[in-house]
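R.M. (postdoc): so does anyone remember the format we settled on? I'll just put the structure tokens first.
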């Protein structure tokens, strides 16, 4: 006789019993449940087992003693052949086999390790990584300027009522569900703490420009809260690391980056929101002359493949509390359209979609492109063309100084130049006023002012509140 079964069910056939099949029962219990037949071959044909009656008693005892769960074991007959049916129900709590956690996915059983095990245990407990509280962190340690940056973004996005935006920092945390009683959730620390890495190791981004895999030319690290990281990364990538194609439509000069800004921003947001911060390693961005590779410690949702990931799908953020804050700030959609937006932006410039690959506990996103070859593309595009892409010789293009104001050092970023121009027009402008004009945080303003002071362009006269900036340019 051949066993009739639904192809969609979790069913496993074994000709004889071995104690290692407790792993399969563990996998069924941790997933959606399933049925294990003993005395049936891979073709679902009953071959019988000689010790069926003794196993009828032994298997439930072994399952109980080793796995700590109960299963139904039924003795069935096909003529003179005896075989067993072991029915396993799904369990809400995680089930382990001698300290190992197994999971039945599709037609395969796998032992859960690393990120997969972390995800599984959190899911069984009804938690996500960013929703776990951190009792060492205090609300008083959070950065008010980080809240102000969020409010500015949320006000512009109109995804929070004005009354909610006007709440105190503590009340805003409660509105965003980033506190549990008096304790901060991990998501709150990453979004608003002055020093997230004090509690979350590796909560930063490394970026480098590579000649090849073994030859790095220069690099940076981006630290701070997650909102700041996105803004800093976009500034670094497009004003220091990326080149652009230059073309003309009539007399209008058109500059197109090898990776559109919309696509890059979505890819960075995906990496930050879906990262497994429990892995304690930073996001790594490698930029080459012909590709950008974003390496992120993350896993696809259970049962997903790269092919499904690239199709239309719902939103399944690994860190839903962090995702909600970014949604309220207008940075992302809530419909799982990030990949679609990336592909659409690339298609507009006749570029291929990115390549995604699951490598162990990491997802690699690769943007491939053709290196710009025009002479004008030897420096990044960007309004103001403020920074150059170092050649292998380390020399500047001869034409570079002609495109920059003579009084400003070439290494200044675009935002530093904007801060300088505003200070020239209004030496009494405060950090808050500068931030509002350029739409960056006061902390970022201080960074650019420090740069301007270091290169000898400005000098502070008087106190912070009643003084002014003296322009030192020649």
């Amino acid at each position: 006789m051949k066993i009739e079964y639904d192809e969609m069910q979790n069913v496993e056939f074994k000709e004889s019993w071995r104690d290692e099949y407790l792993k399969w029962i563990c996998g069924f219990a941790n997933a959606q449940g399933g049925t294990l037949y003993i005395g049936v071959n891979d073709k679902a044909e009953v071959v019988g087992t000689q010790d069926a009656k003794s196993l009828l008693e032994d298997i439930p005892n072994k399952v109980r003693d080793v796995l700590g769960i109960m299963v139904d074991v039924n003795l069935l007959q096909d003529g003179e052949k005896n075989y067993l049916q072991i029915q396993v129900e799904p369990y809400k709590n995680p089930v382990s086999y001698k300290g190992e956690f197994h999971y039945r996915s599709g037609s395969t059983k796998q032992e859960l390790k690393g990120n997969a095990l972390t995800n599984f245990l959190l899911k069984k407990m009804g938690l996500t990584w960013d929703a776990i509280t951190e009792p060492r962190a205090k609300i008083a340690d959070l950065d008010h300027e980080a809240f102000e940056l969020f409010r500015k973004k949320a006000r512009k996005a109109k995804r929070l009522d004005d009354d909610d935006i006007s709440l105190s920092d503590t009340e805003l945390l409660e509105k965003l569900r980033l506190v549990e009683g008096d304790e901060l959730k991990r998501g709150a620390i990453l979004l608003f703490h002055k020093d997230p890495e004090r509690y979350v190791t590796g909560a930063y981004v490394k970026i480098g420009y590579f000649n090849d895999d073994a030859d790095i030319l220069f690099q940076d690290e981006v630290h701070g809260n997650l909102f700041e990281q996105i803004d800093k990364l976009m500034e670094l990538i497009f004003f220091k690391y990326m080149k652009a194609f230059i073309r003309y439509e009539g007399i209008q000069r058109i500059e197109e980056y090898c990776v559109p800004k919309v696509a890059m921003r979505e890819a960075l947001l995906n990496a930050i929101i879906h990262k497994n911060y429990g892995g304690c390693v930073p996001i790594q961005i490698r930029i080459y002359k012909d590709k950008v590779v974003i390496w992120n410690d993350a896993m696809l949702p259970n049962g997903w493949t790269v092919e499904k990931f690239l199709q239309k799908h719902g939103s399944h953020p690994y860190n839903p509390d962090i995702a909600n804050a970014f949604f309220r700030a207008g940075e992302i959609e809530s419909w799982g359209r990030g990949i679609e937006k990336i592909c659409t932006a690339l298609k507009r410039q006749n570029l291929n979609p990115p390549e995604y690959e699951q490598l162990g506990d990491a997802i690699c996103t690769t943007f491939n492109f053709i290196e710009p070859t025009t002479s004008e593309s030897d420096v990044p595009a960007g309004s103001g063309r403020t920074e150059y892409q170092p050649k292998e010789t380390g020399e500047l293009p001869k034409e570079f100084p002609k495109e920059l104001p003579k009084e400003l050092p070439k290494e200044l970023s675009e935002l530093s130049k904007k801060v300088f121009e505003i200070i020239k027009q209004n030496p009494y402008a405060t950090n808050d006023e500068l931030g509002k004009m350029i739409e960056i945080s006061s902390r970022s303003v201080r960074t650019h002012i420090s740069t301007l002071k270091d290169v000898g362009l400005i000098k502070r006269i008087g106190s912070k509140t009643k003084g002014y900036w003296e322009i030192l340019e020649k």
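R.M.: ...and that's the designed sequence above, right after the tokens. Also worth knowing: The longest strand covers residues 81-88. The first helix runs from residue 22 to 30.
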